[in-house]
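Render this sequence as a predicted structure.
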Amino acid sequence: MKGSLRLSSEERRQAIVEAVRGVFADKGFHGTTTRELADSQLFGHRRGSFTGAMNDQLGLVRTAAGGTLFLDEVGDMSPKVQAKVLRVLEEQRFEPVGSGTSITVDVRLIAATNKALSSLVSQGRFREDLYFRLKVVEIDVPPLRERPGDIELLPFDRSVCRDATER
């Protein structure tokens, strides 16, 4: 999913949850998470694998096993995380941080970005092989300014807007 959605990560994730109800592991990941945390958040970690790792953590990929994981802002993922996501897609395997053991996982990925991944690929900032793996079905969402009729469909509390304009 690409485009200027003007929705928060949570709103975007929730829209996808509604679209694929019943097959979605209600988990999401935002690619702008700090590089140090992204690996651990997605793939989990073993206790003691880094400062502050007090317990084993499963990670979002393992937690979403058998379902779908939503990856938001994939254009911001580090090259290391891109490589690990590609391995999940190609081999259905990954290694948690601090573990030498591969874990097999069956998970579907939905990715979103507001960046032109093809440009990032040509600049060498996004893996071409991962780009083509993610681009199986592409949904281009035009900016809201180009679809004013959709504004009324947005789920927000209109009384808040009314209260704000009356002040």
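Summary. The chain is about 35% helix and 15% strand. Strands lie at 2-3, 27-30, 68-72, 93-94, 103-104, 108-112, 140-141.
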